[in-house]
Design goal:
The protein is α/β, with parallel strands linked by helices. It has 15 helices and 13 strands. The strands form two sheets. It has an eight-stranded mixed sheet with strand order 3-2-1-4-5-6-7-8, with helices on both faces. It has a five-stranded parallel sheet with strand order 10-9-11-12-13, covered by helices on one side.
Length: 439
Amino acid sequence: MRLTEQLAANETAQVAVIGMGYVGLPVALGLVESGIKAIGLDIDPDKVKSLRAGQSYIKHIPSGQIASAIENETLVASTDFSLVSQCHAIVICVPTPLTRHREPDLSYVVDTIDSILPFLKSGQTVSLESTTYPGTTEEILRPKIESAGFTVGENLFLVYSPEREDPGNKQFSRRAIPKVVGGSTPECLREGLALYGQICDQCVPVSSTQVAEFSKLLENIHRAVNIGLVNEMKMVADRMGVDIWEVISAAKTKPFGFTPFYPGPGLGGHCIPIDPFYLTWKAKEFDLHTRFIELAGEINTGMPRYVVQRVIETLNGLGKALATSRVLVLGLAYKPNVDDLRESPSFHIMEILDSYGCHVSYHDPHIPVIPPTREHAKWAGLESLPWNEANFSSQDCVIISTAHEAYDLEELVKWAPRIIDTRNALAGIETGQGQVTKA
């Protein structure tokens, strides 16, 4: 039975969500809140074990919400992908990283489709939420589905709806964020709108899956390019002895024609550092070179090295060499008040410092121990240095990389002899002469 038919009959629908990470788990919980039974599938048995125990592994998602859903059997967690056969819809929320050559890695998407293909049933809706280049849904998913004997738009419905998750953002709930939905056919779009209309207050239908895919890239490229611009302006301002933060504060008083973006030590999260390269890769198929996007990417990926250069200049001014210095990186998560490490520029700063022979440590109240990661395996198991005067006063330099609200910045200023502030976190706090370098 189609999802629209199930909902029209006022019968409980069942939806599988594949990938129980920062995107998939909130989707599953959103379905539960809307009265839909969710089956959360993941290849990671540890995640499934945690969910079954009612334990959250994502800081901003409370364990109580998971425990209640598990206890009421409105959320089922499993590694058994054959369970998709019991569902009216399947939502795919798996990673889409880049290779080391900055090319799209769709292996998780392809492996997921291959895993569920034997269990698909007539009438189901398959929705991809993973960020990707325009054409992925039609060029990769659709042929695989139709090779299994289905006709998309008639007995199986294919949708692309980009995730717009912003971990830790208290201003916009998942339900309040408009949801872009594109279908392979008009009937696919109808089923997709029925699905997302259950968990979002507003759906934005578009004419194709390609438009939906492109819209996600445009959103994030817009941010990446503007952040690249302001990061370049920061380097110019630093060289001129001008405070870029004061410049931005003045510029944003203009009530039209200017949107403030802020500099930092580099880009983090799964989207903004990665998504632009999906479009640049696809554009080459059409003999186009996206120079503007690539320039912004070059500037943003170079910011960790710029921060380290500012550390070197600061220590040199004190007659100290970086190789014999102790430097603490304050904040490992890629954004404030979350435990999300994905693509965090703090890792790159630490690795550059380490390459100089520097003694590197970190403090992050949200990440007590660095977990295993694919890209930064050498740091796994390193523990966050406790917040106390002895630990901070013994550092030659402290880098504010992520401005968590949990920091007592007045204590930091009392304890740390030298501070590199990449986030303007110390604005309005009295500091010593020459104690703080902005970077």
